[in-house]
Design goal:
Elements lengths: L9 E3 L5 E3 L14 H10 L13 H12 L3 E9 L4 E8 L5 E6 L4 E2 L2 H4 L5 H10 L4 H4 L6 H10 L4 H4 L29 E3 L7 E3 H10 L22 H6 L11 H4 L12 H8 L6
Antiparallel strand pairs: 1-2, 3-4, 4-5, 5-6, 7-8
């Protein structure tokens, strides 16, 4: 009786990474291609720096919940990289007021303590989903291909200051619609909303604008057109701002300027992790 042929069995680990659990089959050797063909194939078959995730793992879903429910504030964006491999750096104020830099590239990273350990942190997920409007299947990847970065930045919202110059001569207020350029949340009825009276007329949440002015080292400029901002309701402490406050972790912390307590809300955290991290006084 002939033995049954074993089928290749693909499985997935707990992190959603594709894993081949079947014995490796020998493949016939292919003839070496000439130099030009090899270069072409190398471009077409770009290798992902980290394994592809076929679905969103539970670890991602837990952090995503914190990323989209906690108060995070974008303090600056900078497009960098090249045309072939576009990248972006985003300065984010975390929920405890620490300022972190998120770098979206082939291997997205953040300089917060959690990301430095090799984890995908809430700041990275926030930038992916809230700021760049990335589709979900991109948000849970740990590494991207050049083509994925190109597609991401083709459809992502532009950096506000890059598109506002054309309207800078119009002092009329724009309709209150769309998103705030600082928190990337929709404008809602009843919210305090300021606008650029000096030039472009674009709208911004009053609280977000106060935060923007505070962490911009006293340079009150419009997030869109960079014209001088007419400050009427701002009451931030510019003296504290100019000196800056670096905490024991080595991060600039702007909790007091943003009206944050500086204490973490542990209600959405996995409890064993909470107990371990509280022993180190870690702020995320």
């Amino acid at each position: 009786m002939k033995g049954k042929r074993k089928r290749k069995n693909d499985s997935y680990d707990d992190e959603g990474d594709a894993v081949d659990v079947s014995p490796k089959n020998r493949s016939p050797k292919k003839k070496a291609k000439k130099g030009g063909d090899e270069t072409c194939d190398a471009v077409m078959k770009e290798k992902r720096p980290r394994r592809f995730r076929a679905y969103a793992p539970q670890s991602y879903l837990e952090i995503k919940e914190r990323a989209l429910s906690q108060r995070l504030t974008v303090m600056g964006r900078e497009r960098c990289g090249t045309t072939e491999v576009p990248e972006e750096k985003v300065l984010v104020a975390g929920s405890t007021g620490n300022l972190y830099t998120v770098h979206i590239g082939k291997v997205p990273d953040c300089d917060c303590p959690y990301a430095k350990k090799g984890n995908q942190c809430k700041h990275i997920i926030y930038v992916f989903l809230r700021v760049l409007k990335a589709p979900e299947h991109v948000g849970y990847q740990l590494a991207l291909l050049s083509s994925e970065l190109q597609d991401l930045f083709k459809t992502s919202p532009p950096i506000p200051s890059a598109d506002a110059e054309a309207d800078s001569s119009d002092g009329n207020r724009k309709p209150i619609e769309g998103e705030c350029p600082i928190c990337y949340m929709e404008f809602e009825k009843g919210e305090a909303i300021a606008y650029c009276k000096a030039a472009c007329g674009n709208n911004v949440h009053q609280d977000c604008m106060n935060s923007w002015i505070t962490v911009s080292r006293g340079k009150a400029t419009c997030p869109y057109c960079r014209s001088n901002w007419v400050r009427e309701a701002f009451s931030g402490n510019s003296k504290e701002l100019l000196t800056g406050t670096v905490n024991e972790e080595g991060y600039v912390n702007v909790a007091s300027q943003l009206g944050l307590s500086g204490e973490r809300d542990y209600s959405t955290y996995h409890q064993p992790w909470v107990r371990s991290q509280r022993g180190y006084g870690y702020r995320h």
